């Protein structure tokens, strides 16, 4: 099946490097302010994936080590989401939605026999779910905080009508939080017509039949919808209850 795999060699490195530089150059020309971040992200991706590839190769034979690695993934995802949501230390509440949704789902998949209890299967599945949850958590947290800040007067009006603080915030922020699920919903709606997601392509490159790859990809997409919906709902609740908040300004 050599023809069905990506050729690892100088050509791959050149293609990847040119892609990063092109993205950075376009960002600089358009003054998007993301040129440097693009290059840094590309370099980090190479270093981190290289290290993780070696690490996974060493631990996939151990269920306990694989489980520990999944917990590390949750911690890194929570740290990343917390930084995106707010510079305030309350951002660390992001660990709750990122852990509550993907970990039980992954465990259920293993216990039901859908995913074999081996690291080479558990780690990728958990990684996909944790990654999707991280993105949804970040988007929901940022959107809700921004919405409550820009529509502060409406929140005050709701409070004057007798709403509790949590309920007043919910009335204003709920629609905005739902927007964080748009990417996952659109990806699921257009799969096969617009996009061929990573799990599908990866299985094809690994030698699976198109039917097998399609079945796994559908499972991944619907699971992402579940865990991301749970994460958005939890983040909305955390912000509206005041547990996650913006950093205080110098004037405040």
List keywords for this structure.
252 residues, 74% helix, globular
Report on this structure.
The model has no long low-confidence stretch (mean pLDDT 85). This protein is an all-alpha fold. The protein has helices at 10-29, 35-59, 63-85, 95-100, 102-111, 119-150, 152-160, 165-178, 182-190, 198-205, 210-240. The protein is 74% helix and 0% strand. It contains 11 helices and no strands. α7 packs across α8 (165-178).
Compact overview of the structure:
The protein is mostly helical and 252 residues long. It contains 11 helices and no strands.
**Helical residues, percent:** over 70%
Q: Let me know the average pLDDT.
A: 85
Overall strand count: 0
* Percent range for β-strand residues: under 5%
| Major beta-sheet overview | none
């Amino acid at each position: 099946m050599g023809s069905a795999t990506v050729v690892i060699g100088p050509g791959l490195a050149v293609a990847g490097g040119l892609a990063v530089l092109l993205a950075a150059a376009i960002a600089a020309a358009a003054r998007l302010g993301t040129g440097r971040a693009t290059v840094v992200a590309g370099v980090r991706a190479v270093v981190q994936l290289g290290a993780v590839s070696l690490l996974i190769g060493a631990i996939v034979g151990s269920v306990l080590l694989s489980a520990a690695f999944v917990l590390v993934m949750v911690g890194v995802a929570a740290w990343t989401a917390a930084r995106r949501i707010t510079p305030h230390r309350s951002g660390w509440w992001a660990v709750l939605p990122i852990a509550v949704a993907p970990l039980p789902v992954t465990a259920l998949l293993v216990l039901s026999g859908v995913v074999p209890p081996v690291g080479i299967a558990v780690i990728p599945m958990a990684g996909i779910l944790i990654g999707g949850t991280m993105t949804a958590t970040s988007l929901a947290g940022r959107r809700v905080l921004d919405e409550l800040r820009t529509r502060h007067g409406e929140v005050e009006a709701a409070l004057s009508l007798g709403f509790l603080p949590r309920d007043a915030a919910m009335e204003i922020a709920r629609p905005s939080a739902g927007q964080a699920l748009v990417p996952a919903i659109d990806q699921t709606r257009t799969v096969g017509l617009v996009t061929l997601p990573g799990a599908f392509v990866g299985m094809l490159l690994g030698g699976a039949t198109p039917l097998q790859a399609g079945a796994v990809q559908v499972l991944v997409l619907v699971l992402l919808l579940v865990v991301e919906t749970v994460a958005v709902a939890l983040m909305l609740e955390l912000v509206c209850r005041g547990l996650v908040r913006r950093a205080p300004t110098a004037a405040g």
